[in-house]
Amino acid sequence: MPQVIISIGREFGSGGKAIAEQLAKRFNIPIYDRHLITEIADKTGLTPEEIEKYNEKPKNHLLSRRVNGYSNSIEDNIAEMQFNFLREKASSGESFVVVGRCSETKLRDFKCLVSLFVLGDMSEKIKRVMTVYDLSEDKAKAFIDKKDRKRKRYHNYHCEGHWGDSRLYDLSINSSRLGLDKTVDLLEEYIKSRMGE
Amino acid sequence: MSAAQIFAIVIFVGMFIMIVLDKIERHYVTLGSGLLTLVVVFGICMRSGSAVMDTLALKGFITKDFWYQVTESESKGINWATIIFIAGMMVMVEGMAKAGFFRWLCMKIAYLVKCKTVPIFITFMVMSAVLSMFIDSITVIMFLAAVTIELASLLKFNPVPMILSEIFCANLGGSATMCGDPPNIIIGTSLGFSFFDFLTNTGLCAAVSLIVSVVFLYFAFRKEIAGGKGEPVDMSKFPKPSEAITNKKDFVISSVIFALAVLLLITHATTHLTVATIGLFIAAITLIAFGKHALELIKKVDYKTLLFFIGLFIVVSGLEETGILKLIANFIGDISDGNVMLMIAIILWVSAVASAFVDNIPFAATMVPIIQSLAETSGVPISTLAWALAMGTDIGGSATPIGASANVVGTSVAQKNGYPIGWGRYCKKIAPATVIVLAISTVYLFVRYL
User: Fold this and answer.
1) How far apart are CA B299 and CA B424, in angstroms?
2) Separation CA B362–CA B268 (nearest Å)
3) Between 20 and 30 A from B383 (CA), which of A19, A28, B291, B407?
4) For chain A, what is the radius of gyration of the CA atoms?
5) Which residues of B touch A61 (CB under 8 A)?
6) Which residues in chain A have Cβ-Cβ distances shorter than 8 Å to B420?
7) Which chain A residue's Cα is nearest to B359?
8) What is the side-by-side strand order in the sheet with A113-119?
9) How far apart, in whole angstroms, are the C-alpha atoms of residue B318 and residue B39?
């Protein structure tokens, strides 16, 4: 199988992560999401809990500074470690699925990159979040908004393009239209076509 | 309040906010703000061509005083002497780094103390302070932190306390001389002080503070640095100091140039050579000595910092020309009500607290005209206020991870190597050390100058 890197950006509650896991299974390749945290933990000697605390979080501008390219924001440094880790994996020729981490931008120089963005109708996202996190409708909506705001700030701080902007991805898809399984089928076909190029 | 004053304040505050937000690189922020000052404040509001010319201060280049100064004089507008001096030192430091000087020095000292943790801890603190007296603390910490982490992995100790102590001592050492910390260069060149003036005033205070700080930091961190204590150190596993030298000829040349720079700086009050001349001369001989690698050194010069300074000086001139800084000076004069002791304490502690949270370079650049005005109206010697400002900005910057450039670089190097240093970890021991040194400085200023 030729090398393929599947980057999946996602709105919170859209099922993007579940789709990523399905695609990883179908192509029989590893997925880097939470796994990235343990990999970085092994490499640096930090505990996974420490990395988790700062994972995919935008930095606090008032509490950190950047001097000559050196940032003392722990969030920035964890992000940079993850980007480097992904680049190393990509350069080694490994195929993998990666969720978030600005991967559509950070890995765009790799021809084998297929970048996808999964979005969803708010009503569907609320339903999913209510079930998974056992929340009321209002709380689920607030939770989604908070998570997406965070992802957007994280992404837009580290990349030039805007999070969720279709011009940044090869394909943006609303998972609420076909449901998760059929969305995975469609994406699998698309990725296979791309791999055959 | 006039329109010019309002715009000058808005531009200044906007610039500070943009620097903190870090969305746009800081040199673009200060240059953009500087341009706005020139066009809106001086051009549209004041319609003053002379204010523009005074701020650009280009005439200074063709005056003899700029290069060879017999009598002390004060400068206004863009402080070109600071910029040329910093640029010159940057070229020299790049040459030294390329030759492997800093890594060699760190390794040599580690070898001399037989790679034992506690002696390394103490000697590295002293080395950090001494090097920072002549070289920018960013470079000093960049190398020291990297070598500390390397030694920590070999000797199995936690490098964080050592890095934090090195950062603290770098800022302290920087306060001792005119070229140690950018605020001091700005204060020195703006108010006409010499290297020796700093050494005999802030330097003395820094020396006393260093002794106290080394003792304090040792007791604060002694449990953490104990690490591999007791185990015999196998020196054969360590990289040899000589391995750090990339090119022997370059190493010798850069060491000689460094020694020459130190000599010129120490004697510049006697030789009458200004820091601008020294900076230019040191850069020129470094470039000549490195021959075909000269272009490589020039490319490595951090021109962004130089542009940052230029923009900053213009914005501060906006506040100065519109009389805002005079108003602030009068305000300080009023609240201290002629009490010199209170005035010194305000300048020292306000500078320290401000520098702990915002970049101390813009702060010092803003405060210089304020203390000038304050000295004129209150009759307090400008030198007394200058030393209070220098110590406040230099030492205060140590208190938090964002207070000074060395703190940012040191904590960043540690983080990149898997040792995260958050605010809590940083401030727990370093903030008390800062307060102790500020207290020493307060007593020193009161005893010596009142």
Assistant:
1) 38
2) 26
3) B407
4) 17
5) 20-22
6) 46, 50, 54, 74, 77
7) A65
8) A31-32, A96-99, A5-10, A113-119, A171-174
9) 11
Whether A156 and chain B come into contact, CB under 8 Å, resolves to no
- Mutation to test the B interface, candidates A43, A54, A61, A72, most B Cβ within 10 Å: A72
**Element holding A174 (H helix, E strand):** strand A171-174
The rounded distance, in Å, linking the Cα atoms of A113 and A4 is 6
Residue of chain B minimizing CA distance to A73? B412
Q: Given this model, what pLDDT does residue B433 score? A: 97
Q: What is the mean pLDDT of each run of 10 residues along chain A (197 residues)?
A: 94 95 95 82 77 80 84 87 91 95 95 96 95 94 95 92 95 95 96 86
* pLDDT on residue B420: 84
Distance CA B199, CA B87 (A): 22
Shortest distance, CA A68 to any CA of chain B (angstroms) = 8
Task: Please report the pLDDT score of residue B164 as a whole number.
Answer: 97
Report, as ranges of residue numbers, the positions in chain B whose pLDDT lies below 70.
Answer: 70-75, 227-232
- Classify burial at B23, counting beta carbons within 10 Å of its beta carbon; exposed 0-12, middle 13-18, buried 19 or more: exposed
What residues 31-60 of chain A have any CB closer than 8 A to a CB of chain B?
A: 43-46, 50, 54
Is the Cβ pair A70, B413 closer than 8 Å?
A: yes
What distance in Å separates residue A161's CA from the closest CA in chain B? 14
Bridge partners of A85, per DSSP, are none
Going by C-alpha positions, the residue among B318, B378, B369 that lies closest to residue B344 is B378
Q: Which two tokens stand for residue B297?
A: 């050194």
Half-sphere exposure of B19 (CA within 13 A, CB side): 26
Cβ–Cβ < 8 Å for A24, A99: no
Assess contact for B244 and B107: CB atoms under 8 A. Answer: yes
Q: What is the number of CB-based contacts under 8 A between chain A and chain B? A: 63
CA distances from A106 to A12, A38, A43, A82, B416 (A): 21, 20, 20, 10, 18
Strands A5-10 and A113-119: parallel
Reported as a single tens digit per residue, the pLDDT across A111-142 is 999 999 999 999 999 999 999 999 999 999 99
Q: Distance between CA B403 and CA A20 in Å, rounded?
A: 43
Dist CA B433 CA B435 (whole Å): 5
pLDDT digits (tens, 9 = 90+) for B82-124: 899 999 999 999 999 989 999 999 999 998 988 889 999 999 9
The interface predicted TM-score (ipTM) is 0.76
Determine whether the interchain pair A71/B412 forms a contact, defined as Cβ–Cβ distance below 8 Å: yes
Helix (H) or strand (E) holding A8: strand A5-10
For residue A100 the two structure tokens come to 């978030």
**Rg of chain B, C-alpha, whole Å:** 22
Interchain contact, A63 vs B405, CB within 8 Å = no
**3-state DSSP helix/strand/coil percent for chain B, to nearest 5?**
80, 0, 20
Structure token digits, residue B191: 């108010």
Alpha-carbon distance B278 to nearest alpha carbon in chain A (angstroms): 25
Kindly report the pTM of this predicted structure: 0.86
- At residue A149's C-alpha, the angle toward residues A145 and A151, to 5°, is 120
Cα-based angle A59, A61, A64 (whole degrees, multiple of 5)? 80
**Which spans in B114-194 are helix H?**
117-132, 137-155, 159-174, 182-191
B163-173 pLDDT tens trace: 999 999 999 99
